[in-house]
Give the backbone structure.
Amino acid sequence: MLRLYAEKRVNLVRLFAARLRSTAEAEDLVQDLYLKVQAMGEVDAREGGSALLFRMAQNLMLDRLRSGARASARDEGWRRLQGATVGGEQIADAPAADDVVAARQRLAALMAALETLPPREARAFTLHKLEGLSHAETAIAMGVSRSSVEKHISAALKTLIAKLP
Amino acid sequence: MTRSQQAIAAAVEWLVRLQRPSVTEADWLAFDAWLAESADHTAAYDAALAFDQEFDLGPTQLAPPPPAPVAVIRPRLRPSRRAWIWSTGAALAAAGVVGAVLLPLTAAPETVYSTGFGERKTVVLEDGSRIDLNAHSKIAVRFARGERHVTLGDAQAFFDVAKDPRRPFVIDAGDTRVRVVGTAFDVRHRDGAVAVAVQRGVVEVRPGTADRPTLIRLLPGEGLSHVEGQAGARPRPVAVDEITSWREGRLIYRDQPLSEIVADLNRQFARPLQLGDAHAADLRLSGVLIVDRQDAMVARLSSLLPVQATTTPDAVVIRSR
């Protein structure tokens, strides 16, 4: 099982980074998974081992969400920009000035690119990414189905990635 | 489309699919297999993921820090001795009856918590139960040996009750009594109506305590609405996440009249919103309103509904257009 874990580890992080909106949290989660897998001892993992790993990781994620131990990706982003963290304690309040300038320029470029999108794509993208609504809430706000929201967001992301390498 | 463009397109599809509320084992197996197919796929996915996370941080870089971290208030171990008498006392006082307040001499001390316009608060009680209070709400908490008791005035609150089978948690909201042992649920007592929505556990509700109330058991995902003074209520499925979204500073509506939405907004801001005509009051809205500044919220309302707003020094008047 540990060998399977070593093999799947990176892709599990990729999957949970999308779900948790944070690679750092996904790394954390998959590290917790390692402890669980280790505790299981020798298990014959040939059949369904990969699915089992996913299920265990999924349960760990739900536990985390429930316990509220997780700071949101947004807060984390804010802290990251606000200053360095040492041993879990924030040590500085102000980010380096040129980091802020670079981040702002990048953001301004992204905003400009957003303007060029078809209005519904831009709106779905704004509500979901910038205002933090879920797909379902975005669907309600726009009066469209959840699958259209997903299509709009996919289309917007594809265009934006192409425009802003 | 070049090969790398194709890979990016597929990667984005995966990213959006993985951000759905539920992802299955089959999704994981397919995703893992897709990544293993080619190094282009992993590179494209990592690029899409990095881009997505960068954008997620956008608003926090421009705007002030994330929505007000709600104040957490812990009552002092020995709450103030101020015996606070809910409406009974007020009613008696209003009726000019003085000195006739019947409180058991052994009554446990009562602690009052309240919030003002646009204020949210989290209260942690001595048993570990948590109460999130919505704006413009007032509750009184009293813990006795055999019972944990909360009286809801004009209030909306989300309760996460610590389990204690020997000491039930009882909430009185107008003529309705809610009783639980350990569970999470939302109670709204506004404008003569009581609404309950259950997130976790079982909640017992007796709508209309005075008049032979029937006991209704609500399970997770169920709720009820009851108009005070009328008979009972029926359990029905409710969208608990939507009902409790006020805790994250959002108001979610499904086909609700503007009059109700205005009433909600008037708990957020000191400057009142007024409806200029009956037609505007009846307009219905489905959608999500993010609670931020009043002018921004009014502007969004006018883009969602055929209304226009006029701001005067002491009110914002909304009329249909």
